[in-house]
Input
Amino acid sequence: MKPKGRPKKTRLVQGDPKIAQFSPRGRPGRPDEAELTIDQYEAIRLADFMGLEQNKACKYMGISRQTFGRILKGARKTLAEGLVKGKIIKFAGGKVKIG
Output
């Protein structure tokens, strides 16, 4: 079956995260997981860590400003869920090109 809608554009990222996951301590048992895609990680890195404006950050990733905003919003939601609920935050997936 053919997928609906436009195909996702490949996002440019500067490099893979240095770690594969972020895990909380002090929580008994095996915590649930929240997955942060590589493009979401890159959006957080550019906007929040490096402090770039969305107009500049979207050019680094080769996407529109609206798309960058959606990716950033999803990334922040995933991070907030992981922090509030004590979940493991895994970095994986997404259609990206490292360069």
About this structure: The first helix runs from residue 38 to 49. The beta strands are 11-13, 21-22, 33-36, 88-91, 96-98.
